[in-house]
Amino acid sequence: MDIFTTFDVSASALKAQRTRLNTISSNLANVETTSTPEGGPYKKKSVYFQTKPISFKEQLDSSIQGVEVTKILEDTEEPKKIYDPSHPDAAEDGYVAMPNISVLKEMVDMMSATRSYEANTTVIKSAKRMALKALEIGR
């Protein structure tokens, strides 16, 4: 494993965490969305990760692996119903179908994604410092 493999592994994690953060921000932005072009309330989306070999050499070794987003799935739970007869999207019985998104859970997930992102940037900075120090040895 060379220093560039470290960069590749961390870069794959940064890309995956960025997708996770984008999905979380979409969920938070649509926490009150009751009408979508597909019809019905906004459905919460979740990101799923899977390990992936970084290069052909690592694929043969299969010891060092990065990460990739394999799928972004919509929540299949029923939307929560809130009684609000004055809402424009209220049904005849006065209930409005709201997205089934917990702001608290999304915030915790966002903090986790942010910490993971920061950890991977720290890895890249450390690897860069190590490479620079190795270059100084030859002087």
Q: What's the gist of this structure?
A:
Helix 1 (3-29) runs antiparallel to helix 3.
Q: What does it look like?
A:
With about 140 residues, the protein is an alpha+beta fold. The protein has one domain (about 5-30, about 45-75, about 105-139). About 50% of the residues lie in helices and about 20% in strands. It contains 3 helices and 4 strands. It has helices at about 5-30, 55-60, 105-135, and strands spanning about 45-55, 65-75, 80-85, 95-100. Strands 1-2 form a two-stranded antiparallel ribbon. Helix 1 runs antiparallel to helix 3. The longest helix has about 35 residues, at about 105-135. The model has no long low-confidence stretch (mean pLDDT about 90).
How many separate helices? Answer: 3
Give the topology string: H per helix, E per strand.
HEHEEEH
Gross morphology: elongated
> Helicity range of the residues?
40-55%
Tell me what portion of residues adopts beta-strand conformation: 15-25%
User: How many domains, in number, for the residues?
Assistant: 1
DSSP, total strands: 4
Family: Belongs to the flagella basal body rod proteins family.
Protein name: Flagellar basal-body rod protein FlgC
Domain Flagellar basal body rod protein N-terminal: 8-34
InterPro entries: Flag_bb_rod_N, Flagellar_basal_body_rod_CS, Flg_bb/hook_C_dom, FlgC
